[in-house]
Design a protein that fits this description.
CATH architecture: Alpha-Beta Barrel
CATH superfamily: Metal-dependent hydrolases
Strand content: 5-15%
Shape: globular
Distance between the termini: 29 Å
Number of domains: 1
CATH class: Alpha Beta
Largest sheet: 6 strands, parallel
Number of strands: 9
Helix content: 25-40%
CATH topology: TIM Barrel
Length: about 350
């Protein structure tokens, strides 16, 4: 199936005018690898039949909660790649979650197979480069909530080959693996369980990135303690407490722990986590969080992890993926060097993938 879309590379000046930004920002964006570390659109396909092949508008809530990404808009936004996420329903039994994952894995593969003319599932840096050389969007796969496969350690073998690039150990609820950072866990932070520690070691063995998004502070440090230091750690979608204090955000010590392994931190777009109002905000807030990461641990450890379609309320000037070049404009205005911008847009994550799985 061929997906029609506007190719902004043919007239970057027109895109710049439409967004109200400089042509310099658009051209830098189009010349960069642009990778989103957390896109949750597949959950709406599973629950409501959201058609990824259709170009959607802003939906019922003005691009709040959902309708922020689909295949035509991903192509039009010149999104080079993304981690497309299979999210876990914690209400199922452990066996039920494993069965659901197998079904969802097959369904996601089928969706991308239908879009194979312009999208390619990729597992490593070499496959990413091949997809890009063919002019395709390179789609990595991630799991949100390790409890999708916590029946036992052997459940991780249900992943087809090395299809999955990263797994968040926990999501919004605590599990057999460990404690969430969410207030829903209650007052106790039990960190990682013994099983959770073994789970981290098994992810290391399988060269799946240990994603520390959503984990409690004690669980974070438990994971750092048992993690194979020859592999990078990652947090795909978070804010940072140095820019805005919040239970969802990482503090400076946590940033340094990830950077010390050669990993990267993806800044998410949920306005309330960034320090703005619940139902709005400005893209400038995303850049403030990126700037704090750069100042604290350097420009090789900051990335973009929107959480688009993950029931978030993004900034009002960045409601969908189509407005992403506005981030480049804002970074340039704040004095970010073009090379730093390129690293944040995608080069940092590609370095991490190459470190983990080779070229």
């Amino acid at each position: 199936m061929h997906i029609e879309h506007v190719d902004h590379k043919k007239d970057p000046a027109a895109w710049a005018r439409a967004l109200g930004i400089s042509r310099e920002a658009v051209e830098l964006y189009l010349a960069s690898e642009v990778i989103d570390l957390h896109v949750d659109s597949f959950i709406w396909t599973r629950i409501f039949g959201y058609d990824l092949f259709k170009r959607h508008g802003h939906g019922l809530f003005g691009a709040r909660f959902y309708s922020q990404v689909d295949f035509p808009r991903a192509l039009e936004a010149a999104l080079s790649g993304a981690i497309w996420v299979i999210t876990t329903n914690p209400a199922r039994s452990a066996a039920g979650r494993a069965r659901a994952f197998v079904r969802n894995q097959a369904r996601l593969r089928a969706v991308f197979a239908e879009a194979a003319e312009q999208f390619a599932l990729v597992r490593n840096l070499g496959e990413y480069r091949a997809a890009r050389a063919a002019g395709k969007h390179a789609a990595f796969v991630g799991i949100q909530g390790g409890n999708a496969l916590d029946r036992d350690l052997a459940a991780l073998d249900l992943i087809e080959g090395d299809l999955v690039i990263r797994i968040t150990l926990v999501h919004l609820s605590s599990s057999r693996i460990g404690s969430t950072s969410s207030p829903m866990r209650g007052p106790d932070d039990d960190g990682l369980s013994s099983f959770g520690r073994d789970y981290v070691r098994r992810l290391n063995d399988k060269k799946i990135l240990v994603d520390l998004a959503h984990i409690s502070k004690r669980g974070f440090w438990d994971a750092v303690a048992v993690h194979d230091r020859s592999q990078p750690l990652i947090d795909t979608h978070t804010g940072v407490s140095g820019a805005f204090e919040h239970w969802r955000n990482l503090d400076d010590a946590q940033l340094r722990a990830i950077a010390d392994t050669g990993g990267t931190i993806g800044v998410m777009y949920q306005s309330s986590f960034l320090g703005d109002g619940l139902l709005g905000g400005k893209a400038e807030s995303i850049v403030r969080h990126l700037e704090h990461i750069v100042r604290t641990v350097g420009d090789e450890h900051a990335s973009l992890g929107s959480d688009f379609d993950g029931a978030i309320t993004p900034p009002r000037d960045l409601p969908t993926c189509l407005e992403l070049p506005r981030l480049v404009e804002l970074m340039l205005r704040r004095g970010f060097a073009p090379d730093t911008v390129r690293k944040i847009l995608g080069a940092n994550f590609l370095r991490v993938v190459g470190h983990l799985r080779g070229a």
